[in-house]
User: Fold these one by one.
Assistant:
Number 1:
Amino acid sequence: MILRYHITKHTLIKDFLEKKLSSNLIVSINLYGMYIVNNQQVKNYYPLKPGDVLEVVLPKEDSDNIKAIKGDLDILYEDSYLLILNKPDGLATLPTGVHYNNSLANIVAGYFARMGIESGIHFVNRLDLPTTGIIVLAKNSLIAGMMKDAILSKKYLLVVNNHLSSGGMIEGGIYKEDDMKRKFTKDFINSKTVYDVVMSKNKQSLVVATLLTGKTHQLRLHFSSIGAPIKGDKMYGDDQSDKLYLHSYYLEFIHPITNEKIVIVHYPKWYDQTKWYQ
């Protein structure tokens, strides 16, 4: 991947980049990357002047540490920097002890291998095994870091098992109980969710939730804490539905390289106001 800068004042390359890139990345570029000024390769102490075009060739990344497998990807957006997917249910985001060779990352590694794409696999957000919807992958560690501050809004569609008459905010503390399950408390605050009720019927409510923080199992814990567990949540509720009605459906961000505002919208298969409450 190449970063391109138009220079407006006199400075050295190393001084210019120390305010833009991490020290670890700069060391990596010095060892394995390249600096090009006006189509000529130079060293990091090259003196830049107004009007110069600096191109920084980042070191190549790959996904060799993740086993590549065949599988289908539902690609919502892709360019040289990002891969945005619709994650299906029942699929782990990253390899684990239980899902070592069967995760979304394994399928992406297979896709990269087939397409001849030399990229790392850096998930900007993660979704639980049963959660579906929009998930963002950066093809370079630099872009992954930049995306943390680029996301403007993330919204989820969910169905809860209770009648909610109006929206509001849920806030409190989420802490780890064991390897999988978390607990919710009002003793401190490290998580916040804002939600709106789309409609309620048959003691169920269709909700749009916006994350203000990003804790593990946040939405599942938050709605369980107000007596409205998400439909199909066997961990924080007692619903035995065949799937979890929780879907990441809206993402808005500023592209870290092009500065373009990108909006991704993807509705779940169950999103039908005549069927979700049956």
Number 2:
Amino acid sequence: MKWALVTLLGACSFSGAEGSPPPAPEDGVDGPLAPPDAPPEVDAPPQWRVVETLMVDTASASPVVSLPLAAGVTYRLRATGTATVIDGLEGDAEYWDFPNRRDSGCCEDVGIGIDDPIIDLDTRPDWGPYNEAHIYEIEWMGTGAAISAQYQDTYYGNNSGTLTLEIYALQ
């Protein structure tokens, strides 16, 4: 029985003396496998990058037009800044008269409209709740066409300044 055990051990191949690298894996994977208790690799969060910046003039009824946005692609639109609007008060992409936080004037929903050429009490999109930093973001689905951005107001003669509209896409 002793000889059988010695013979069996003699047929085995031992490698990896102390300090030497582990044997190469036999399953085609490069390098050692992760230990079973290692945390799974996490993908990095998506990174957004500015693809275009538009300046929306609050003193003009003329819209600014972007480059075409790819159909079926989700973009982020980010509106920032303040300007002088309606009787010398400050306004941003969605609100004006900040101490009172008004969204609408007498006959218009004031703010930046996207693909919304009709000035009325329903400016689209809704940029969300008031933000003291005057930064608003929404998601926007591209259609293969450009978007137009216009400051919505019925009287532009008492407005001055521009608001910034950035278009973001995933990298």
